[in-house]
From TrEMBL:
Residues 1-67 form the HIG1 domain. The chain crosses the membrane at residues 6-26, 47-65. It comes from the Bacteria. This is Twin transmembrane helix small protein.
Length: 67
């Protein structure tokens, strides 16, 4: 499974979600002007990345279940 390109894409997408989440949490913790400028944008990026990750996960399981 580690050599499957779709599995690697799913893993990368999940790591991207975690990275964006950590950036958002750090911006909340920092506060001030940085928080005001980047917190909402980071959470929007996270939601988009999560959507992509979920679609990839569902697609991966659907493809593997069929074949």
């Amino acid at each position: 499974m580690k050599d499957d390109p779709l599995f690697i894409l799913v893993a990368v997408s999940m790591l991207a979600v975690v990275g964006i989440l950590m950036f958002g949490i750090a911006s909340f913790a920092k506060g001030g002007a940085f928080n005001a400028k980047y917190s909402n944008r980071a959470m929007r990026w996270r939601i988009i990345a999560q959507f992509i990750a979920v679609v990839l996960i569902v697609g991966f399981t659907w493809i593997r279940h069929k074949g």
